[in-house]
Amino acid sequence: MREAIEAAGQRLRALLPGLTDAVTREPSELPGWSRAHVLSHIEGIGLAMARQARYALRGELVEPYDGGRPARAAAIEAGALRDAAALAGAVAAALDEASAAWAAVGPADWSRPVRYRDGDLRTALTCWWRELEIHLADARLGPGPQDWPPELCHHLLDYLAPRAPHDLTLILAATDTEFSRRYGAGAAPEVTVRGRLTDLAAWMAGRAPRHPLDCLRPGAGSALPELLDWP
C-alpha cells in the first residue's frame, strides 16, 4: 500500500508546477469546491493522518484535527484562498511530511491504536491512500477514476459496502475482469449493476463513471439505485 501511496503522491507532485491562479480557481468535481479547495483538503488530510502516525509511535492518541470537523472545514476554506504558488508549496510540504511519517512505521507498529475511527495505524494509512486517490481525481488535473488501480477499486467496493440500499440485494459485476460483489442477503429484490471495475468503484464512491453502467432487475432494465451516505 505504501508503494501505491507514494506513486499517487508522485503523480500529484508532477502536477504542482503547472498550477496557476486561474487553474486553481476553476471548479473541481465536488459541488461548491474549486480545485484549490480540493488541494487544500488533500494537504489537510495528509497532515492529519501523518499526525496520527507520529503520535501513535509515541504511544499517544490525538484527534486528527484540533477543533474537529469545524476546524477542518475552516482550514480548507482558508487554504483555498492562497495563490497557486503558496498552495503548491503547502501541498508538496504535506506530501513530504506524510512520506516521512509513514516511513517511520515499522512492521511491528501497524496494530498501534489511533484516534481516527478508533482504529489502528493501518486504518489511518488506508484512509490517506483512499483520500489521496479520490481527491486527486476530484481535482480534475489529470488522473481520474478510470486510472484507479484494481487494488484501490477492490478496497473501495469493500469499504463502501454500507452505501448499498437496505431494501435491495445489490450485485456488482465487472465486465472487464472477473469480479463480482454482493451486498445484502435474504428475500430483498435483486438489482445487478454491470460495468468496468473502475466505473463500479467510481459510482460507489459517488463519482461519475467514465462509461455507462447497466442496471438490471429481473426481467427488465432500470435506473441505478440511490446509494446511502458514506460510512
TrEMBL record:
- InterPro entries this protein is in? DinB/YfiT-like (IPR034660), Maleyloyr_isom (IPR017517), MDMPI_C-term_domain (IPR010872), MDMPI_metal-binding (IPR024344), SCP2_sterol-bd_dom_sf (IPR036527)
Q: Which residues form the Mycothiol-dependent maleylpyruvate isomerase metal-binding domain?
A: 6-140
One Pfam family, short name: MDMPI_N
Q: Which domain of life is it from?
A: Bacteria
| An example molecular function term from Gene Ontology annotations | metal ion binding
List each copy of the MDMPI C-terminal domain by range: 147-210
User: NCBIfam families recorded for this chain?
Assistant: maleylpyruvate isomerase family mycothiol-dependent enzyme (TIGR03083)
Name recorded for this polypeptide: Uncharacterized protein
In which organism is this protein found? Answer: Streptomyces lydicus
